[in-house]
Amino acid sequence: MELKDFKHSIKLKVRFSDLDAMRHVNNATYLSYLEEARIAYFKDVLKKPKEGLDFEAVVARIEIDYQQPIIFGDNIEVLSRVSKIGNKSSDVEHLILIERKGKKIIAAAALTKLVAFDYNKQVSFSIPDNIRKQIEEYEN
């Protein structure tokens, strides 16, 4: 993953409540940062208001490679992209960046696998063509 491969980003601030006993961002908090970034990505790419997003998807897997600690007061930028769309699933890649000494540094790299899922029927389904098209047009 390289910075140039990402078009979408959001900025977040580290809250005191994000910290653990070691005074850096707790590893579980990264999941919240990724969730915020995914919601913003799909809101922007699918051109829907946040409250109008019908997330018919479940998180099947998340991998996070922690590279640098994030501390209180850091400004965070989370880059997102859909790197793969399958029949029923998609891969969302993220880079969590922090700024140190005027340079953007990768604090973490993550991959989230989402599966299209009908909550009423409790079954996965094929990603609709219109959603696939909007994502592909944005990413290409």
Number of domains: 1
Fill in the CATH topology. Answer: Thiol Ester Dehydrase, Chain A
Terminal-residue CA separation: 16 Å
Form type: globular
- Poorly predicted parts: none
Would you spell out the secondary-structure blueprint of this structure?
Layout: E1 8-13, H1 29-45, E2 57-66, E3 75-85, E4 89-100, E5 103-118, E6 123-124, H2 129-139
Antiparallel strand pairs: 1-3, 2-5, 3-4, 4-5, 5-6
Describe, in plain words, how this protein is organized in 3D.
- This protein has about 140 residues and is an alpha+beta fold.
- It has a single domain (about 5-140), classed as Hotdog Thioesterase (Thiol Ester Dehydrase, Chain A, Roll), CATH 3.10.129.10.
- It has two helices and six strands.
- The protein has helices at about 30-45, 130-140; strands at about 10-15, 55-65, 75-85, 90-100, 105-120, 125.
- Strands 1, 2, 3, 4, 5 and 6 form a six-stranded antiparallel sheet that branches.
- The longest helix is centred in the first third of the chain and has 17 residues, at about 30-45.
- The mean pLDDT is about 90.
